[in-house]
Specification:
The complex is a heterodimer.
Chain A: E1 4-7, E2 10-14, E3 19-25, E4 31-37, E5 43-48, E6 52-56, E7 59-64, E8 69-74, E9 83-90, E10 99-100, E11 104-109
Chain B: E1 4-7, E2 10-13, E3 18-25, E4 31-37, E5 44-50, E6 53-57, E7 64-70, E8 73-79, E9 87-94, E10 103-104, E11 108-112
Parallel strand pairs in B: 2-11
Antiparallel strand pairs in B: 1-3, 3-8, 4-5, 4-9, 5-6, 7-8, 9-10, 9-11
The chains are: A mainly beta, B mainly beta.
């Protein structure tokens, strides 16, 4: 099956700092999503981005499909950004069977 | 509205109990999913329903029995579970189209005693 690797596994930031999270995947994908899992377990959709660049407030993401990686940028981090960030990919269309990376655990301290 | 709801939020059950988890969406999505997430691990796919038919069963033990009564509802029936089945159970839905973004519910945190 498809392999998804995320880096770094853990990240500690001071409030206000910027960061870049990376997701590498082993095959061409039809679907790539970034999620933020909050401490209560809710998976929050950040981006649906199988290719290209998107921005939403302080967050942006870029997927270079031909080179099989995606980047999530967090600028001016806040304590509420703490949690686990997952990249998930899928080969299919029609319905998606997401394969998740192991996640990046982010802790933003005040 | 991009909301998927799940009930109950928490469930404690004994190994001889029978219980059900419920999931509902009103986004008109035609694909619904069950995932299992153990602590400090990523979610793992269990079942996929597409147009109310079971499309994928990822070799899940028969003590987990999914049901899709209609296009808005998804149930997971639990029977004779083991303590190692304790986990966060997440439901998701998507349009079942060519470009298929999944939306997740808040999950049910299950403890088997």
């Amino acid at each position: 099956g498809i392999q998804v690797e995320q880096s770094p596994p853990d990240l500690i930031l001071q409030e206000g700092a910027n960061s870049t999270l990376r997701c590498n995947f082993s095959d061409s994908v039809n679907n790539l999503q970034w999620f933020h899992q909050n401490p209560w377990g809710q998976l929050i959709n950040l981006f649906y981005i199988p290719s290209g660049t998107k921005q939403n407030g302080r967050l942006s993401a870029t997927t270079v499909a031909t080179e099989r990686y995606s980047l999530l940028y967090i600028s001016s981090s806040q304590t509420t950004d703490s949690g686990v960030y997952f990249c998930a990919v899928d080969l299919n269309s029609g319905y998606s069977t997401l394969t998740f990376g192991k996640g990046t655990m982010l802790l933003v301290s005040p | 509205d991009t909301e998927v709801t799940q009930t109950p939020k928490h469930l404690v059950m004994g190994m001889t109990n029978k219980k059900s988890l419920k999931c509902e969406q009103h986004m008109g999505h035609r694909a619904m999913y069950w995932y299992k997430q153990k602590a400090k691990k990523p979610p793992e796919l269990m079942f996929v329903y597409s147009y109310e038919k079971l499309s994928i069963n990822e070799s899940v033990p028969s003590r987990f029995s999914p049901e899709c009564p209609n296009s808005s509802l998804l149930n997971l029936h639990l029977h004779a579970l083991q303590p190692e089945d304790s986990a966060l159970y997440l439901c998701a839905s998507s349009q079942a189209g060519v470009f298929d973004e999944q939306y997740f519910g808040p999950g049910t945190r299950l403890t088997v005693t």
